[in-house]
Amino acid sequence: MNARQIRSAFPVTLQLPVLLLALLLPLATWAIDLPVQGKVTMIDLGAHSCIPCKMMAPVLSKLKQAYEGRAVITFIDVWEQHDQGIKYGVRSIPTQIFYDREGQEVFRHAGFMAEKDIVNKLTEMGVAAPVVE
Fold first, then answer.
1. pLDDT tens digits, residue range 32-75?
2. Number of folded domains in the chain?
3. C-beta separation of 108 from 100 below 8 A
4. C-alpha to C-alpha distances, 106 to 93, 113, 124, nearest whole angstrom
5. Does any domain span residue 54?
6. 44: which DSSP letter?
7. N or C end of the chain, less CB within 10 A?
8. For residue 23, what are the domain limits?
9. Is the pTM of this model over 0.85?
């Protein structure tokens, strides 16, 4: 929501609090430090409106659940969070970055990454593959 939308949608008395909330809410998503120390971490950097990124979304959602408690799998929208794209040195999207338990980058991939390739990389890094039901 931008300032113009806030001005037209809310009475004057609510505009400042709503504007502050709109500005600060994205920062709340970064309360967790990445990569997570002590856990293998995969960060997918992309955008909600990029086609290959949209194709990655259900894969990431599935794997995030499958690896819960054993590895961290997360998504950052670099079109909404420009500073994160700079921080991670993203040159194209989507980009997947894998970190070991000590927080060291061990692998980087640009473009769509298939589920089996992500599972293979996480297994290679010592995280057991999820059990298929």
1. 689 999 999 999 999 999 999 999 999 999 999 999 999 999 99
2. 2
3. no
4. 18, 16, 11
5. yes
6. E
7. C
8. 1-31
9. no
